[in-house]
Specification:
The protein has 8 helices and 6 strands; from the N terminus they run E-H-H-E-H-E-E-H-H-H-E-H-E-H. Strand 3 and strand 4 form a beta hairpin.
């Protein structure tokens, strides 16, 4: 069984797929692929402007509905080290030459910290410029080794599409 977390951007990609209901059903019915949510991800989805539409539907409502259905109440927990771990990731990122600000990296590092502290298997994201940048990936590895944590495998949206053949 894979324990998975989707980065916020994955939900946006899923709602614009042509057959998004079939995709949603495939993911929710797969008992070997459990998607977990995190408060920070739901808050980012909630921050979607109310006036954005996907077809004739409100994008914010679609995103929150998809999130709630896919995660089905499975939430990663803050074991008291998530914020500290995210800060450690950022400090290491800067130390090895990362140039983006804490404000730009905060949510991404928090999501990875949630995944590491909850021992999740996979984190799916399309965020190549921040979360999946070379320096960010290196910072996760360096800090996780020191903290005796496991970094999740990182998949792209393409990997998710291949898994469910959509």
């Amino acid at each position: 069984m894979l324990r998975v977390v989707f980065d916020t951007n994955v939900y946006g990609l899923l709602i614009i797929e042509n057959d998004n209901e079939k995709i949603r059903d495939s993911i929710t019915k797969d008992k070997d692929f459990l998607v977990y949510g995190a408060k920070i991800i739901r808050n980012e989805l909630r921050d979607t402007p109310k006036n954005i539409r996907v077809g004739r539907f409100n994008a914010r409502s679609l995103l929150l509905s998809l999130y709630d259905e896919i995660t089905r109440g499975r939430q990663v927990e803050d074991h008291g080290l998530v914020s500290d771990l995210a800060i450690d990731f950022y400090n290491e990122y800067v130390k090895i030459g990362g140039k983006r600000s804490w404000k730009e990296m905060h949510n991404d590092f928090m999501i990875v910290a949630y995944a590491c502290s909850n021992n999740l298997d996979v984190l799916i994201s399309e965020d190549a410029k921040t979360m999946l940048s070379k320096r960010a990936l290196e910072s996760y590895k360096n800090i996780a080794v020191k903290a005796n944590l496991r970094v999740p495998n990182f998949w792209t949206y393409k990997d998710l599409r291949e898994k469910y053949e959509f």
